[in-house]
Amino acid sequence: MTKYYTVTTPDTGKDGKTRFHKVGVAFPQNEGAKSFMTIQLFATPVNGELVLFEPKADSDDGQVTE
Asked: Which residues pair with 66 in a beta bridge?
């Protein structure tokens, strides 16, 4: 299984709760002694904030709740 991270952007609702919307994926890369991530965005967050999570195995609906 390829290791990847779910790229999300936070949004605070009217109820004050923060919800994270999936906007892409990130793949860790290694090149010799260098480590970096390749990020593919499906959408550009308006707030400019990205949060990465390890994917949940039991949910594939694109919504991440933490």
From this structure: none
Query: Is the full-model pTM beyond 0.85?
Result: no
- C-alpha closest to that of 51 among 13, 19, 7, 3: 7
Does 53 have pLDDT greater than 70?
A: yes
Distance of CA 33 to the CA centre of its chain: 25
From CA 61, how far away is CA 17, in angstroms rounded? Answer: 19
Bridge partners of 49, per DSSP, are none
Say what the pLDDT of residue 66 is.
Answer: 46
How far apart are alpha carbons 52 and 62 in whole angstroms?
Answer: 13
Provide the β-strand partners of residue 9: 21
